[in-house]
Amino acid sequence: MKKTLVLAIVAGMLSAGADSGGGAVYYVPTSTTTVDEDTFCGGGACTSADTIIIRGGARGGLKFQDFDGAGSYITITNENTNPDSRVEIDGRSGFGCLSISNCKYIDLRGNNDGDLAYGIKVINDMTSQTAGTVWVYGESDHIKISYIEATCEGSTVIAGIGIFVSDGSLPPSWTFDTFEIHHNYIHDTRYAGMYLGHNDPISYISPYSARFSVYNNIIENAGTYGMVLKGLNGGPNSFYNNVVDTTDVVSRPDITDEWRSGIRVRTFDSKYSVDVYDNTVFNTVGPGILAGSGSHNIYNNIVCNAGTGDHVSWGHGIKLYLGTTGTNVYDNTIIQAHRYGIYAGGSVVSVSHKRNLIGDCGSGAAGGTNLTEGTGADANIYHADVADFGFKVWSDDGDYSNDDFSLGDTELTDLNGDGTVNLEDFAVLASYWMNEDVCSPPDWCQGADFDRSGTIDLLDLATFIESWGSGRRIN
Q1: Which helix H or strand E contains 281, and what residues bound it?
Q2: Count of CB atoms within 10 A of residue 32's CB?
Q3: Burial grade of 239 (CB within 10 A; 0-12, 13-18, 19 or more)
Q4: CATH number attached to the domain at 413-466
Q5: Helix (H) or strand (E) holding 292
Q6: Which of 135, 268, 351, 408 is most exposed, with minimal Cβ within 10 Å?
Q7: How confident is the model at residue 344 (pLDDT cuts 50, 70, 90)?
Q8: Cis ω for the linkage preceding 236 (within 30 of 0)
Q9: What fold characterizes domain 1-256?
Q10: Parallel, antiparallel or unpaired: strands 104-109 and 74-78
């Protein structure tokens, strides 16, 4: 798996003493351990127009505290000039090597310069299960974290979390509200790539979470979990375009269950939901995707080789549990799960699953209780031999990163499932033509909104025309 993202946005060049859109530019020396808004920005409070730059090079742990952008984000980043502008925070033997405490409206990001890879690297080696490499705590909300590499290093490391949003000292009346976490590279973290929130805030006497958007992150060689989001009491929430490759890289004798999942989401008291889509999850001991207590939409994900622990309750591609209700599971590709491709258990009700491609799973396509499968064109497609799907690139070598699981536009545009793209399919598309904002999950205007934009427009029409008159390659 490629270990760097294609960095699409180039940050502006910043120079000492320069004006930044009406604000000032302040530098954090390598010797600084704590940056306090009350004393840092020229002796007064920083404003959203200000930019705070962490000086490049090696340094110890670093904490930002008591910053408040008051409705607009204060930017904290590294220098965008070569050489030596990349920051390497070696905070080993410390909890929260790079931490944000009691902050609001903060945009913490590496400068996403392609020559620098991730502008900020943070290293931890803690043995505590809940040791956050990048840690957000205190009464913090409206936080952005991006373009950061987080890792645990050292032969004795058996735990640790890449990005950790939690604080057991806060009451459940507080909510970690509006977090945007994207384009980070997290690897070898032993316990979790990301751990966001708590199971049940009232029981654990810990704060809630709400309105989390987690996307375009790469998690490699995690421990128990790849990415976890819990205790939600508000939305919308989403996980999309993330890659999770391999969990349980270190044996954890203290973890006796088989919940070692790639992506796990759980709301508080089933009132809220998470959209989980366009993620790629490989090689998990437990479920590839585990969703509980909410009405979730899980779609367009690729899940391969889930359930390597072969546990009868947890070794599935996608598992629903803990009172999940009204959840839609559709258009996913689930390959070589050791148990079922999709499984529902533990008081799950009203789960719809349709149009999923499920191949070579040990127990079959779907199992459990209260699952309703689509019929006709909405039925799941299952093959014992993955090669029968006709994926663009498939080799049964266990290296899923080299495969292309797309079937092509022909299958996508056969809207009525009769094996041919023709006038009947065009009639479906035309019936929604240019109606604003009418397409939404799970139906997406009967599948005619090919790019999931919410509207049937010229882009969808172009996709349709390309496959006119073609037949499907799958049975």
Answers
A1: strand 280-284
A2: 15
A3: buried
A4: 1.10.1330
A5: strand 289-292
A6: 408
A7: very high
A8: yes
A9: Pectate Lyase C-like (2.160.20)
A10: parallel
Q: Please provide the size of the chain in residues.
A: 475
pTM of the complete model: 0.82
Euclidean distance between the first and final Cα of the chain, in Å?
31
- Which two structure tokens, joined as six digits, stand for 321? 């549990």
For the stretch 186-232, pLDDT in tens is 998 878 899 998 766 556 556 789 999 999 999 998 878 899 998 88
| Rg of the chain taking only CA atoms, in angstroms | 23
Paired with 232 in beta bridges are 209, 267
User: Would you state the structure tokens that stand for residue 35, as one six-digit string?
Assistant: 């940056």
Instruction: For CATH 2.160.20, list the domain ranges present in the chain.
Output: 1-256
| CA-closest candidate to residue 106, choices 139, 138, 78, 72 | 72
Report how far residue 19's alpha carbon sits from residue 132's, in angstroms, rounded to the nearest whole number: 34
Could you give the residue range(s) of every CATH 1.10.1330 domain in the chain? 413-466
To the nearest whole percent, how much of the chain has pLDDT over 90?
A: 44
φ, ψ dihedrals at 466, nearest 5°: -60, -25
Residue 174, both tokens: 């507080």
Query: Residue 43's CB: how many other CB atoms inside 10 A?
Result: 7
DSSP 330-363: ES-EEE--SSEEEEE-SS-EEEEEES-EEES-TT
CB 321 within 8 A of CB 340: no
